Amino acid sequence: MPIVKIDELIEKLQTTFSGSDDLKIRQITVGGVRCAFAYIDGSIDKLLLEQSIITPLRHAEKLEEPYVECLAQLTDFSENAVEVPLINIPGFIAEGDTAFLIDGCENGYIFSLRKPEKRSITEPPSSSVLKGPREGFIEEIKCNLSIMRRRIKSPDLVIKTFKVGRYSTSSVAVLHIRGVADSLLLKQIYERISKIDVDGVIDSAYILSFIQPQKHSFFLQAGTTEKPDVASAKLLEGRVVILVDGSPIAVTLPYLIFEDVQDGYDYYSGDWRASMIRMFRIIGALMTIFLPGAYIALQTYHLQLLPLKFLMTLMAATTGIPFPPAIEMLVVLVLFEVLNQASIRMPRYLGISLSVVGAIVLGDTAVKSGLISSPSVLVIALSAIGIFCVPDQVGTMSILRLIFLCVSAVTGFVGMAILALAIVAYLASLENFGTPYLAPYAPRINPDLQDGMLKSSTSDMLRRPYSIPTSNRTRMNRREHS
After folding, report:
1. Interatomic CA distance for residues 183 and 179, integer angstroms
2. Rg (Cα) of the chain, in Å, rounded?
């Protein structure tokens, strides 16, 4: 086998990285042998490299085989170098590791000196709570995994890592608890992730789009959370958690639609309080979906259902409006959606100005000019408030609200009732990795009703949910104390 010269190795590396300026190659002599370190600038701890590896090697009298053992003796670094074929060296460098090359050696050696930039652990902006843990996931997967390890201090917490993406080579970690998670569920998830062949994975939503059973459904098919305490609770129930490097959003599988009615705060407050809050969330979601359509149906087809005084008030408010009720409501809905999207993308300090312009100037001026009626603005405002009672379902409820509005404009309450039945029947037919989508209500699973729309005491939940496939149903053993 021909001897590999260090100059040739350096030239090949520079060619592989197309002469990128952030590829740094530092040559040194160790015991009379020419060597080189190669790394990406900004991705490693340079101080650790200089003090713990380069300085001891400069003072070494000799460098001899086996190189792994020799490097372990010469350097002050706590982790041993890993020997890898030269063909794999560029991949490790691109991931943020440091490569050590030796003149005439057919293999390279990898030191893990990664020091990625990351933001601090803070409370997630979308999951703030009054009581309970306030830490949230960040974009660095190793930090997220350490948080999960800190919460579940057991060797039964198993982490399986995949590399996904031809160019991004993103780390995707699948977490489960051995002896609790269902083996068939794990096999399905592993197979679907291993078959992903895409240029890059930027967020956990990319993984979800490949592994979800119904790819073209606008209903959510996986739970998402930014809170480690919620992810840990899902693991303890027998679910699987997926973390993606670069994303603060964890994906939980299997998924039930009633999970979005639940919240981490429910388990840190009283049972009666949690049950009441869940009912309010359901009312808010139903109000978001049905209220605009019901208003159009009443105003267009079913005026006789309204009390006389309310009818007189409504007729007085809508007299002189140039648009039909359905068109008027659609215009107001589109206006609110546009304002919502603008406020999301607007710099934070300009959000107040946008609220003043949108709510006061546009809304008030449009009502006073007679283009839209005040009841329409009120209905859409109530619907817009209710949509944030279940924030994970904002996209789905927005689509359903528009569909029910259009159907009610044509067929009234009859069409809305038929459409509602059709949607419920469709949801009842869905399965998510062997889990009925509407469980524990369709099919009815009595033990799981303890943590459904109403919440029982945590001490009474002796079994893990029967809606979720699991290898071990026992959550706790009741002990009677004298």
Report:
1. 9
2. 30
Q: How far apart are CA 157 and CA 149, in angstroms?
A: 8
d(CA 408, CA 417): 9
Kindly list the domain boundaries of the chain, sorted by start residue. 6-111, 141-255, 270-429
Least confident among 21-35, 389-403, 419-433, 451-465 = 451-465
23 vs 385: CA distance, rounded Å: 51
Please tell me the pTM assigned to this model: 0.82
Of the candidates 79, 25, 453, 2, the one whose C-alpha atom is nearest the C-alpha of residue 258 is 453
Give strand pairing partners of 29: 34
% of the chain surpassing 70 pLDDT: 94
- Judge contact between 97 and 84, C-beta under 8 A: no
- Give CA angle at 261 (256, 264), nearest 5°: 100
Maximum separation of any 2 CA atoms in the chain, in Å: 101
Express as a percent the part of the chain with pLDDT over 90. 19
**Helix or strand (DSSP H, E) at 160:** strand 157-164
**Spatial separation of the C-alpha atoms in residues 281 and 453, rounded to whole Å:** 10
Other CB atoms within 10 A of residue 224 CB: 21
Between 247 and 353, name the one with better pLDDT: 247
Residue 413 in tokens: 């309450």
Summarize pLDDT for 257-308 with one digit per residue, the tens: 888 888 877 788 778 888 888 899 999 999 999 999 998 998 888 877 778 7
How does DSSP assign 223-282, residue by residue? EEES-HHHHHHHHHTT-EEEEETT-SPEEEES--GGGGG--GGGGGS-HHHHHHHHHHHH
**How many Cβ atoms are within 10 Å of 236's Cβ, its own excluded?**
14
First to last CA, the chain: 78
Q: What is the pLDDT of residue 421?
A: 95
Tell me which amino acid residue 15 is.
T
Looking at the DSSP bridge assignments, the partners of residue 107 are 85
DSSP-derived letter for residue 81 is P
DSSP string, 85-143: EGGGHHHHHHTT-EEEEETT-SEEEEE--B----PPP---TTS--SSS------S-HHH
For the chain, how many residues are written?
482
- The Cα–Cα gap between 20 and 182 comes to 46
The torsion angles phi and psi of 360, rounded to 5 degrees, stand at: -90, -55
How does pLDDT run across 313-358, given as a tens digit for each residue? 777 777 777 778 888 888 888 888 877 777 777 666 665 556 655 6
Tokens of 374: 């005040």
